[in-house]
Structures are given as structure tokens and as C-alpha cells.
């Protein structure tokens, strides 16, 4: 089957999966692609990895458009995603209303599962939060860092630790079996990221890529986006 190729931040994986059947019915094409840390996905596009569209942070899409790797008129906002905390489904959710609450929760965890702290949106932010809380050195040995949020969350689900916790994009938490969304980061530590889609300049299937973007962002998919963890 001919496919439209996507390079995307992990935050959009569940949403893309949710429109696969509708896209096939509309175009006759499947969807293939890679989902991971946004910085890694952007670099793959720069390295000429075949892709018809990209779904990355708004800032990265703007940069790729400036580099003439994405067609500017095609760029469309998908929705905002919170960086949030996750626990295993069998564990009690944590209540984090203040920075002090978050500091104590992270101090009490014996394993902390996060995505790439250099290339992923949530991972970069989490590293800054640890510095802000003054506990980066204290918890460094407990950090379990994975290439992307989806992998980090799967590993959290399978963790044999006594008191593990995770932090990544809410959409990646919702899309992973065996873990539960435990709430957003508290005021002063929060991060809400706009994700945006665009057709690549070298797209093999530009019309179909535009059709997929329309499916992902259409008003009739608002409920799907909400269930996947996106906000307006």
C-alpha cells in the first residue's frame, strides 16, 4: 500500500493513529512514519529523510519553514499539549499543587522516567524544572532517560520500582497502556506546547499530506483531539 510518511513529535502519535482508518477511506493511502523527540525529527528532515508532512512544535515548524523545508501556507496548528506527571495504573495518583509538592514527590520517587532531556520538548523542560527546584543533583541517579516520551512511558508501565513516576507530554501518557495521567505540573513549573503540522517541501504526496493535516485539525475531530490529550 502507498503511504504518506510522517515525521512527528511523540505527542501526536495517538492522534495520528486515531485518524488512520478515516484517512485510508478518504485517500486510499496508509500512514507510515516516525514519532520521537521533536529535535531528532527535525534533524531527520534536515538530513533528507523522506517525509510528506511533519508535526512538531510551533517554533520548530517556523524554523523549518525559514529553512525552506516546509511549505509555509500549509502550516496549521493542531493543538496545545501540557507536560504532565504519570504513574503506573495500579499506583495512587499524586497531588501536586505547588513547587514544594512537586519537589517532595520527586524526592520520594525511587525511579523517574523521562524522555530525552536534550532533544525532546518535555525532557528539556523537566531538566530545567529539576534545576529550578534545586534537586537536579539529588535525583540524578534515579532518572531513567529514554529517546522519547512513548518509550519512557512504556518503561514506566513495566517498572519494578517501588515508587516510580514519569513526566512527559499528556498525549503520550494517555496513549500508553498501564499508566495513568496524574495531573499537570504546578504553577511556575508548567509547560503548554503548541503542536503544528506542515507539508514538507520535498513531499512525494503533497495533496494527501494536506488532506491528512485537514483530518487532524478539522472541527469535526475536536473530540478526538481532546481524548488524545490536546487542548484548543
Fold and architecture overview:
By secondary structure, the protein is an alpha/beta fold. It folds into 2 domains: 3-80 and 193-228, Periplasmic binding protein-like II (D-Maltodextrin-Binding Protein, domain 2), CATH 3.40.190; 81-191, 3-Layer(aba) Sandwich (D-Maltodextrin-Binding Protein, domain 2). It has 11 helices and 9 strands. The protein has helices at 13-18, 20-27, 38-46, 58-66, 99-108, 121-133, 136-139, 149-157, 170-174, 206-217, 222-228, and strands at residues 3-9, 30-36, 53-57, 76-88, 111-115, 143-146, 164-169, 179-184, 192-199. Strands 1, 2, 3, 4, 5, 6, 7, 8 and 9 form a 9-stranded mixed beta sheet that branches. The longest helix has 13 residues, at 121-133. The radius of gyration is 18 Å and the shape is elongated. The two termini are 34 Å apart. The model has no long low-confidence stretch (mean pLDDT 95). GO terms for molecular function: molybdate ion binding. It comes from Bradyrhizobium shewense. InterPro entries: ModA/WtpA. This is Molybdate transport system substrate-binding protein. Pfam families: SBP_bac_11.
Amino acid at each position: 500500500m502507498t503511504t504518506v510518511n510522517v515525521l512527528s513529535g511523540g505527542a501526536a502519535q495517538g492522534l495520528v493513529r486515531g485518524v488512520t482508518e478515516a484517512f485510508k477511506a478518504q485517500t486510499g493511502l496508509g500512514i507510515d512514519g516516525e514519532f520521537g523527540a521533536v529535535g531528532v525529527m527535525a534533524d531527520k528532515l534536515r538530513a533528507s529523510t523522506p517525509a510528506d508532512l511533519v508535526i512538531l512544535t510551533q517554533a520548530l515548524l517556523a524554523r523549518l519553514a525559514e529553512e525552506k523545508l516546509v511549505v509555509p501556507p500549509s502550516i496549521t496548528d493542531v493543538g496545545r499539549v501540557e507536560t504532565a506527571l504519570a504513574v503506573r495504573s495500579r499506583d495512587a495518583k499524586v497531588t501536586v499543587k505547588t513547587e514544594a509538592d512537586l519537589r517532595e514527590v520527586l524526592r520520594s520517587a525511587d525511579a523517574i522516567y523521562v524522555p530525552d532531556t536534550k532533544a525532546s520538548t518535555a525532557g528539556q523542560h523537566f531538566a530545567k524544572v529539576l534545576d529550578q527546584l534545586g534537586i537536579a543533583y539529588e535525583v540524578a541517579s534515579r532518572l531513567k532517560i529514554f529517546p522519547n516520551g512513548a518509550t519512557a512511558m512504556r518503561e514506566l508501565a513495566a517498572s519494578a520500582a517501588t515508587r516510580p513516576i514519569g513526566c512527559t507530554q499528556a498525549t503520550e501518557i494517555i496513549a500508553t497502556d498501564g499508566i495513568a495521567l496524574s495531573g499537570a505540573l504546578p504553577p511556575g513549573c508548567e509547560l503548554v506546547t503548541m503542536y503544528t503540522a506542515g507539508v514538507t517541501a520535498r513531499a512525494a504526496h503533497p495533496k494527501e499530506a494536506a488532506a491528512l493535516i485537514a483530518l487532524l485539525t478539522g472541527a469535526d475531530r475536536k473530540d478526538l483531539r481532546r481524548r488524545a490529550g490536546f487542548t484548543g
